Amino acid sequence: MNKRAVNISSLVILLALLSLILEICLYYFIPQHIVSVAIAALISLGLSHFFLEMSLDYDYCFLHAAIMTITSLAFYIVVYMMQPNPWIQYDYSLLALIIVNWFIPFAYCFIRDFFDRGPRFSDYLFFFHGMSLLFLIVYLLAIIKQLFITPLLPPYEPAAFGAHNFVPFMATGSYIEEAFSNNIDLHHIIIYIIEMIALAIPFGFYAKVYCRNLPLLIRIAVYLIIPFLLEAIQYLSGIGRADIDDYTLGMIGTVIGIIIYHIIYYISYNTHKRDFLEDRTVTKSLIFHFNSSI
What we know:
Elements: H1 3-29, H2 33-55, H3 59-82, H4 93-114, H5 124-149, H6 170-182, H7 187-211, H8 216-237, H9 244-272
Helix pairs in contact: 1-2, 1-3, 2-3, 2-4, 3-4, 3-5, 4-5, 7-8, 7-9, 8-9
């Protein structure tokens, strides 16, 4: 690694740490936590642009995003484990900080590569797979938390074993019908449905990305079996709630993720006549990438 690369890497690390300190201070001192999320988004966007234009390489955007995502995840875990605490409160804006620190660089670099006809900037494929690996690690932790540690549960008690265990939306439909009859607010069931669908969308997208060269039947098996295994583990472990409705909602999210992949592919191919994951530069090892000469 040459001197210029070392200097840029050091600058990336320094600015990332300063950004993290600023985010923590804003979260601690400003009660409206949405402010810290908005400022984090602006900083992430500005630094992504700065690093890309300065180096003409996506490497440093990945380094910055990785540091910010991992450190904000660590901050999230620390605050969550400290609760209840009178000095610092946990809320979902901490999750938003993690998402912003990952998504903003990812989206910005994706857009820049999409309109980069040269390519002017190098190593986008490394950036995409590195960011995807980073996301999948965080996503796996989120799945474990939301399904097994603090499980997402519908706003009704599970009924005795019966037809509702095998007929999709029988239990949910019964609850909604009862809610209409008794003027019960549907807010909680709507939020639950959205959360279960949203939780599966990334799986659908990345399953399509990394299984796209496999035969159709194998891809379908992956889409069907992995959500089923999650429900089976919940049932066998007695943690969470294994239910056909959850599986069905997960499949809806999976399909949405697959559709998102096809939309991106369609737009990319019809605009530039290329796959958005086409390798237009020299591929480098994800593990040893930063040890090579730049």
